Here is the input.
Amino acid sequence: MPHGHGHRWGQKLSGCGFRLTVGREAIIDVLSRSDKHLSAEDIFLELHADHPGIGLTTIYRTLELLVQTGIVAKFEFGHGRAKYELTEEYGKKKHHHHLFCKSCQTIIDYSDFMEDEITYIKKTEKGLAKKYDFQIDGHIINFYGLCRACRAK
Here is the structure.
């Protein structure tokens, strides 16, 4: 486990008044080793052999806490099938956005066209911040639709 990142999670959690427990560390570790977007069940199955004491309820609770503290990003599909990944600050992926297939629930990370998007977003953020007197500190862009495989069905 790369200590740099682990140290930062620990700092972030304690800064928010939470301890870095074995369970929390294990969940963050699973997310940091995966390039995929994982569900709570995926994480449970991954952890079960080494940490049989960590139940699904604990994983759900921990993920919510990690989402609140900004360490983990949550993607909702409806039907209670949320997927999770580490946020850019704590993960190893660079800034990216998502394409979601509404049929098979595949999530595609993309970082093409970012420069155009960023230019537009910065302008939009500036306008929104001014109009609503709101300090914006991040954004997530998701596009929803159907992937090639689902359209071919």
